[in-house]
Amino acid sequence: MQVNSFVLVLPEVSKTTGQEVSTNYNPATGALSDSFAPGEGRLYALDASFESNNSEAIRI
């Protein structure tokens, strides 16, 4: 997944606790690496102050 460099942190929201957990997001490159099982989804949290009208903010 590629994220624009203006996103500084990108935690995942835990499926079991709802708490934010760390990810392999690299803000210098905007790259997030993760593994998904077939049909699995993940929820990532952006800071509440994040605003973007750019449809290219996050690319999978």
Question: Can you walk me through this structure?
Answer:
This protein is mostly beta strands and 60 residues long. It has a domain at 1-34. The chain contains no helices and six strands. It has strands spanning 2-3, 12-13, 20-21, 25-26, 31-32, 58-59. A two-stranded antiparallel sheet has the order 1-6. It is globular and about 30 Å long. The termini are close together. The mean pLDDT is 83.
Question: What is the helix fraction of residues, given as a range?
Answer: under 10%
Q: Count of helices?
A: 0
Measured on Cα atoms, how large is the radius of gyration? 12 Å
Overall geometry:
globular
**Class based on secondary structure composition and strand pairing:** mainly beta
Mean pLDDT, rounded to whole units?
A: 83
Biggest sheet: strands side by side, in what order?
1-6
Order of helices and strands: EEEEEE
Tell me the fraction of residues in β-strands, as a range.
15-25%
Biggest sheet layout: 2 strands, antiparallel
End-to-end Cα distance, whole Å, is 4 Å
Residue windows where pLDDT falls under 50 for at least 5 positions: none
User: How many runs of DSSP E, i.e. beta strands?
Assistant: 6
Provide a concise account of the structure shown.
This protein has no helices and six strands. With 60 residues, the chain is mainly beta. The protein has a domain at 1-34.
Write the layout of secondary structure elements.
Blueprint (H helix, E strand, L loop, with lengths): L1 E2 L8 E2 L6 E2 L3 E2 L4 E2 L25 E2 L1
Antiparallel strand pairs: 1-6, 2-3, 4-5
